[in-house]
Specification:
The longest helix has 26 residues. Helices cover about 40% and strands about 20% of the residues. It starts with about 20 loop residues before the first helix and ends with a helix. The radius of gyration is 22 Å and the shape is globular. A five-stranded mixed sheet has the order 6-5-4-7-11, with helices on both faces. The chain is built from 13 helices and 16 strands. Helix 4 runs parallel beside helix 5 and helix 6 crosses helix 13. By secondary structure, it is of the alpha/beta class. A hairpin with a 4-residue loop joins strand 9 and strand 10.
Length: about 375
């Protein structure tokens, strides 16, 4: 499964739960088994059969294959087994393979990590962006990935990259103004340099996947607003990622909020990004005392709440996650945005809406980048 979806809108459900057509059955059924073990933990073959709806013969065959691939291992007898031959538990080998996760959304640095199959970050490397754009920024991303490869002694499942901007299903960054990228085939370039599968997606969508898979997100709907060098949002509805006709669903950073405002990197004036991006907030806070800082952050929260309230109301979402520098986004900005949401949304939605920071903290994007690979290579999310 490749992320994000094609321009048709909603891609297929993130978490497979049922059998499919024969021509797709093998890979899909592997995903069913891995998905069950990923979320429920070790299980017997009989329990896997009941959980997935697959026959015991099919389960036995798939488990043997996955053990041969090094993804599963037998863990001994199931506790409390009845009289007779005890059932044997099988479970994921979380350390059997590693993933390279890369986050390009920060305002002044590129962040990378080696991650295991449980989402645990094992090694980190950061490199200063130093204002690089275009081909120079691509070269820096490639070098960061090569440095990460040197940090692992396990087979690599693939590379997940979270980048600002619009990204198509082939990992081409169609537009990323802050990095000076237009139609950059990032997945292809990294794949050639590393000889690994590469999955590239928008950073806000990636963060939403991280919160969905490893955080506290519910199953029904989530909007994650990502604030870094730019501003964007990832939207998950009923377990599926919303992409939109132009792959621009959630691109709230370039919605006009102040026609007399500052010029934006996109060439327009008064975009939300010019008010609440991390660089914009830091610039506005320079030289401010406590009262002045509160005024700046309150104003930014008001613009954010006003921008996303129609989206929350139209989609009937309860969970909104605000991801980015906590020293900027927590406190007055978050409190003001939540107050605006509750006032502007219809009562049945506004009274129940929750705006919070991510359960995964600032690692939500890196962890989400690992989910791109888990989903793309194993069908697990």
């Amino acid at each position: 499964m490749t992320l994000p979806s094609t321009p048709s809108g909603l891609r297929r459900t993130l978490r497979p739960t049922a059998k499919v057509l024969p021509e797709h059955a093998r890979s899909h059924n592997r995903s069913l088994v891995l998905q069950s073990l990923f979320h429920a933990g070790p299980s017997s073959r009989a329990d896997l059969s009941r959980e997935t709806g697959l026959t015991r013969v099919t389960i036995s065959d798939l488990v043997a294959e996955l053990i041969g691939d090094g993804l599963l291992s037998e863990l001994g007898a199931k506790p409390g087994s009845r009289v007779g031959k005890p059932a044997t538990l099988v479970g994921l080998r979380h350390q059997s393979k590693h993933i390279l996760a890369v986050d390009l959304s920060d305002e002044d640095r590129l962040c990378g990590a080696v991650v295991d199959l449980s989402g645990a970050i094992l090694e980190r490397r950061d490199v200063a962006l130093a204002g690089l754009t275009g081909d120079a920024a691509v070269a820096l991303v490639i070098q960061l990935c090569l440095d990460l490869v040197a940090l692992t002694d396990r087979p690599l499942l693939g590379v997940g990259v979270a980048t600002p901007g619009l990204v198509d299903a082939d990992g081409v960054v169609l537009q990323a103004p802050n990095l000076g990228w237009n139609a950059v085939p990032l997945a292809h370039l990294l794949g050639e340099a590393l000889s690994l599968p590469v999955h590239v997606a928008n950073d806000a969508n990636t963060a939403a996947l991280g919160e969905f898979t490893f955080g506290d997100a519910g199953e029904h709907g989530l909007m994650l607003v990502r604030v870094g060098k730019g501003v964007g949002a990832g939207l998950l509805l009923e377990g599926a990622l919303l992409a939109g006709q132009h792959l621009a669903a959630g691109e709230i950073g370039h919605m006009t909020v102040d026609e007399r405002g500052d010029e934006c990197a996109c060439g327009r004036t008064g975009c939300l990004e010019t008010v609440i991006s991390a660089p914009a907030l830091r610039h506005a806070l320079e030289g401010q005392d406590e009262a002045g800082a509160r005024k700046v952050l309150t104003r930014a929260g008001r613009y954010l709440g006003t921008t996303i309230a129609p989206i929350i109301s139209a989609l009937d979402l309860r969970e909104v996650v605000l991801s980015g520098p906590p020293e900027l986004l927590g406190g007055p900005l978050l409190d003001t945005a939540l107050g605006v949401l509750r006032r502007r949304c219809m009562p049945v939605v506004g009274e129940d809406v929750d705006l919070r920071m991510p359960a995964l903290g600032e690692d939500v994007v890196l962890t989400g980048a690992a989910v791109l690979v888990l989903s793309g290579q194993l069908g697990v999310s």
